[in-house]
Specification:
Layout lengths: L5 E18 L6 E15 L2 E13 L6 E4 L1 H10 L7 E8 L14 E7 L5 E8 L1 H10 L7 E4 L1
Parallel strand pairs: 5-8
Antiparallel strand pairs: 1-2, 2-3, 3-4, 5-6, 6-7
Amino acid sequence: MATIIYGTRETAKNMGYLGQEESCGACGRTYKKALMKYTSWFHIYYIPLIPYKKTYFNMCPICGAGYDVDKNTAKSLIQAGGVGHPGFEVFAKHILANKQKGLFKADTSYELWVKDLATGEEICIEQNIEKERVNEVKRVRGLKKVPIIDIK
């Protein structure tokens, strides 16, 4: 008797920094929004086979806040083009000096940072978070990895 492993999985892809510069309601910074495309896949044995749903999201490149956009709006943004910004680097700092002692304590000594590659400015967007939150941000923003810098 064989076991078949199946289910669904969502992938994220950054389509670029498109549209007009907008002020973010959450962090107050003014940038072009990152257009994200989320594709939901049906998979067998962890191999994505059939895409069954695509959604688009306009996301602030700093804090990640944003709003859903429909397929036609996303297509018009992509056709208009205009990346216009070299991008952003997301990284985490692990404050080893603040690490809690004890077997069952949560390690909330991570900080999440975004570096604007055009200006070189580093912006802290979250403090006192766990490594699972860092991995969640990586997944939501469609990043291959989020470097973790250990600070003593």
